[in-house]
Design brief:
Layout: E1 5-10, H1 19-25, E2 29-31, H2 35-52, E3 57-59, H3 69-82, H4 96-105, E4 112-122, H5 127-130, H6 137-142, E5 149-159, H7 167-191, H8 198-204
Parallel strand pairs: 1-2, 1-3
Antiparallel strand pairs: 4-5
Length: 205
């Protein structure tokens, strides 16, 4: 499906040499984080995908921005103000794009939501200090990282037909997935994949 992935990306990235041009040619979903301006473009793209029944994965990074300690602190403050769970390894997800995607593709040929949790562990600097700090995009593409990083990917699949119909409940469903991600990443932070039994973990969730 690599050739059929469509990403939500910041509009400014389309001017980035090489990467941005490739995103534009691949018909990625460039958004300005202004719903009144983005809505028409997103709905038109989704309409074409459904009309042509294009095989596609819509890739949405629901946190919306790169993880930093400062952004985590801001996210935690906002979560506390709104009465949401306080997380330590991920940011509170932005739900509008996700809710729009699910509602747009209900009853279509797009039948599943795949939930990816990707963890990065810097071998040299240890788990705690550099845990889940990803290498930058340039290094990821031009340099071999195998000797420096370990990676762990956890994937879950959910049928669109089984997701909540109500927008607020669907947003709450997404936030719950992020609480689970946070718990899972905490487990990796303190033990990486040692003693990590996925079957037991799934039962606990």
């Amino acid at each position: 499906m690599l050739s059929n992935c469509k990403y939500f990306v910041k509009d400014s990235l389309k001017w980035l040499p090489f990467f941005g041009w490739g995103m534009w040619l691949a018909d990625f979903l460039f958004v300005q984080r202004d719903w009144t301006r983005d809505q028409r473009r997103i709905e038109a793209t989704f309409s074409n995908i459904k009309r042509l029944e294009t095989p596609v994965w819509i890739m949405s990074f629901a946190e919306g921005t790169r993880f930093t300690h400062q952004k985590l602190k801001e996210s935690q403050i906002y979560a506390a103000q709104q009465g949401y769970s306080i997380m330590h390894n991920v940011l509170l997800p932005r739900t509008r794009g996700f809710v729009t995607c699910v509602n747009a593709f209900r009853g279509s040929h797009v039948q599943y939501v795949y939930d990816f949790t990707i963890a990065y562990c810097h071998r040299l600097k240890g788990n705690l200090e550099e845990f889940n700090i990803a290498p930058d995009m340039v290094r990821l593409h031009v340099r071999e990282l195998g000797d420096e990083y370990d990676f762990h990917v956890n994937v879950k699949r959910f049928a669109v037909k089984d997701l909540p119909d109500n927008d607020e409940q669907l947003a709450a469903w997404l936030r719950k997935r992020y609480v689970e991600k946070d718990q899972f990443l905490s487990k990796l932070r303190h033990g990486w994949t040692k003693n990590l039994d996925e079957r037991v973990w799934e039962e606990e969730m």
